[in-house]
Amino acid sequence: MNGRAELDVATIRKDFPILEREIRGKPLVYLDSAASAQKPRAVLEAIQNFYANAYANIHRGVYQLSAEATALYESGRDRVQGFIGAADRREIIFVRNATEAINLVARTFGETQLEAGDEILITALEHHANIVPWQMLGERRGTKLKVLPVDDRGEINLDAYAALLGQRTKLVALTHVSNAIGTILPLKKMIALAKAQGIPVLVDGAQAVPHTRVNVEDLGCDFYAFSGHKLFGPSGIGVLYGRLPMLQAMPPFLGGGDMIETVSFEKTTYAEPPNRFEAGTPDIAGVVGLEAAIGYVEKVGIDAIEAWEQSLLEKATAALAKIDGLRIIGQAREKAAVLSFVLEGIHAHDVGTALDQAGVAVRVGHHCAQPLMVRFGVPATVRASFSLYNTPAEIDVLVAALRETRELFG
Ligand code: PMP
Fold this sequence. Notes:
Elements: H1 9-14, E1 22-23, E2 26-27, E3 29-30, H2 41-54, H3 64-84, E4 92-95, H4 98-113, E5 119-123, H5 132-141, E6 144-148, H6 158-164, E7 169-175, H7 187-196, E8 201-204, H8 216-219, E9 223-227, E10 238-242, H9 244-248, E11 260-263, E12 268-270, H10 284-300, H11 302-321, E13 326-329, E14 338-343, H12 348-357, E15 360-361, E16 363-365, H13 370-375, E17 381-385, H14 392-409
Parallel strand pairs: 3-15, 5-6, 5-7, 7-8, 8-9
Antiparallel strand pairs: 1-2, 4-10, 9-10, 11-12, 13-14, 14-17, 16-17
Bound molecules: 4'-deoxy-4'-aminopyridoxal-5'-phosphate.
Residues 97-99, 127, 129, 175, 179, 204, 206-207, 227, 368 line the site of 4'-deoxy-4'-aminopyridoxal-5'-phosphate.
């Protein structure tokens, strides 16, 4: 545990009702938190309590219930601001998920500030959510995508990155942590290099926020996107952080209620951020649930969570390396608790199905990172991802099930 804060996993597991479930007569071993994390009781109760006792639409109501619901929604914004270290609450925009956050930037910043021939620099590690919106923008505006490669470990080279930053680079869009192979990018250095040339930086933080301390001011990025559901919150709520002057210069994304100042048939004027980007009735209960999730993470302590997950990653990496014919994909020195691997001669989907028989839930496939799979010469991997509620004993179950699978297909 490297002398860092300890985490009482037995107590934590009691906070997650779903972990009491059995799958095929065996205790559930949930190793798919990188896809979506399970929800603690604090989140479930906050949502239930909101709907049962304080529910109404927000912002325009003059009656008490609406005022209470509005206060809860806006207090969620304050909580997110504090959690990611944003300088101003107006920099926090609620969206559906990380995907929508990135699309929002592509549709607003991209449409108005980027021109034909401008380059958007990404890495080979990106999730489709941080590739496709830029390609769609390219189809509309003629912008170009440049891709920073990764080496056999799954790491980037900073000199190669610096060399790709050029006159035509008008946006850098980086994942903080790779969902497919776990690489943690040297983000602070990468952002500093881009900012030294005045290039804005967007960070896809979907895989970082649940596992490590994030401070957007310290990072120096212009945009930071993440999803509530990977942070133990409900699905359907996500966050786009944007530096205030950037947001103020951006046109609206969706048009409708709540994002306007005045409307007439001749001319409509738009609200200031964040409302400008939050058209229509938002996921109010989602924000309430997200606030509870952040409260939960802060109570456990993000440093303790990170240390625990790193200890699980170390144990699992060592144990899996001993399995015959197992190849780990992605061996970055700075890595989150994501273990991607292939078993020689056995299709990843067959491995996943066999593990399910043992109650072990892992993800198999391309993990929405097809170009990265091509880079490593595999069509798919098996991915086990670890969270604060996983235990060393669960790694033993995974290893035993993998050995059985090996024998079954061997
Ligand atoms: N980026 C990364 C790195 C991810 O892992 C994910 C989810 N797998 C996303 C973006 C997209 O998240 P969502 O589906 O919640 O929009």
